[in-house]
Amino acid sequence: MKTYDYAFKFTKDDDGWVITCRDLPEAISQADANEDRIDVAQGCLQAALESRIRDNESLPVASKLRRGEVEVSPPAATAAKAALYDAMREAGISKSELAHRLGVDEKEVRRMLDAGHGTKLPRIAEAVEALGRHLHIALV
Fold it and tell me: Which one in 31, 43, 57, 121 has a CA-CA gap of 20 to 30 Å to 14?
C-alpha cells in the first residue's frame, strides 16, 4: 500500500519558517510566523505532486519520518489522482489504453489526472480498479 504522506521539516528563521521535504526537493516554501505552517506545507506538497504528474515524472515512495519532521498529507483529491497516476505507470498503461478499458474518450482520462479538473472520487476509483488496483481511503 502506497500513501502520499511525506515528511516535512520546518526550520525557524527570522521571518517565520522554511518548509522542505527531502523526498520532493522541489517542495520548498516559507510560512510567516503568523501562518499555519502545516497548511502551507500541504499546499506545497499538492503543487509538487501535481507538477510531477503533469511533467510525467515519478512520484517517490515516502521516507520514514526522522526526528524533527512532520508527516504532511495532500488533499484527498490530489492523493486519489496521484494513486491513479501511479497505477497507470506501474501497469505501463497509457491514457488512451485506460480510456479504452473504461469505454470513454481519452480526454476524460486526461481530466482525471488534471489538478484543475474536479473529477469525482468514484470515477477515479473506477479507473484505478480497471487497472487491477483498489483505492483505499483511511481516516487518521
Answer: 43
